[in-house]
Amino acid sequence: MLKIGLTTAALIGIGWSLCACSGGGPSPIMAIRRLSSVKLDAANSSIDQGAVLDLENSLDKSISVGEEFKVALESNAGTGYEWQCQLKDDPTILVDNPPEIAPVDTGVVGGRVRTIFVLHGTSQGTVKIVFVLVRSWEKDVAPAKSLTLTLTVMPASAATK
Asked: CATH number of the domain at 39-154, out of 2.60.120.280, 1.20.1250.20, 2.40.50.140, 2.60.40.2020?
């Protein structure tokens, strides 16, 4: 009797999880993307190669020359606000343009989105990268939010992990 109960529960669980594939919820791929996003602890000053940094506060971090990582920032698409990276030409870091935009609330028009910037450590040094939440058509208006990532790019052998 116990085997029948466990088998039934397993089949219900499999069926329930497959419901998400037919438009009943977020896709399994989006769930995997969320799980693969690593929130870095403020005490951990080093960013691992390929990591996603969910930036919610201004931080100081370090990487090695040649490493790449991503900075993810959330906003509401329907408000007209978007995240922009304000970085003057700097030999220390390269930021890919345009950033990737990924929906957080799938199936919701004007819902939350993640703006994902890809950064590459190109040479040794320290740089302040400012991310601002703005409406691109509004001129001479202060950003709704501003976050600063102070990034130290160290020689490949010097970064502490």
From this structure: 2.60.40.2020
